[in-house]
Amino acid sequence: MLLRASEKILKDGTKILIQRLEETHHRGAFTCSRHPVLADFLNKHALQNANLGLSRTYVVTLPESNDVIGFCSLSNGSISPKVLPNEGKGLPRYDLPTAHIGRFAIDDKWQCKGLGGTLLFFALEVIVDASERLAAYVIDVFAKDQVAADFYMHNGFSPLRDDALHLFLPMKHAKIALAAAKSVE
Ligand SMILES: CC(C)(COP(=O)(O)OP(=O)(O)OC[C@H]1O[C@@H](n2cnc3c(N)ncnc32)[C@H](O)[C@@H]1OP(=O)(O)O)[C@@H](O)C(=O)NCCC(=O)NCCS
To answer: Mind listing the domains of the chain with CATH numbers?
Structure first.
């Protein structure tokens, strides 16, 4: 299980750590000018929600620092099969389980350096690992705006039928992407 800190290396050689948010992480300096509500969530709600069992937040730091420079929050969700592109043909009529990316943001100073892609890949690793024990048919996310939607679509997500900003990635596609990445490591 991916519970310990995971070390990753960005394209420019920068080492980062990704791990579960803890009280000791410094959240106050995190800024997201496009969506300040995301920084508010990190500061005011992320730990409390984890304690309540509502979501798990994973944070990115540099190895020698406790300053949060990116984070994502994961939980379980559900969707109607009717919102899938093929309207859920061949699937049961009841709601389908999803792994839900609830919040996702990179600090203003760290955007466009490969951190978002690295954190998204980490989130897929956590989700695929968890899905071996707790099934989820797809991974879904509500993008905050079209720019964020384009980021997810660039990384393999597709729109659902209920909302242009509601996006999904089939779990089997996530597994294939992770297996392909492992085979070139
Ligand atoms: C959207 C966001 C998460 C992207 O993070 P980032 O660190 O800037 O993205 P990266 O540099 O890691 O980019 C990863 C890949 O996605 C691509 N990408 C990044 N933003 C993109 C966009 N808006 N549209 C299309 N592709 C995009 C990059 O070109 C890169 O492609 P490559 O792997 O083929 O080289 C970040 O800009 C952010 O936090 N925005 C504000 C908050 C927000 O909107 N969060 C999402 C809420 S749902």
So the answer is: 6-183 (3.40.630.30)
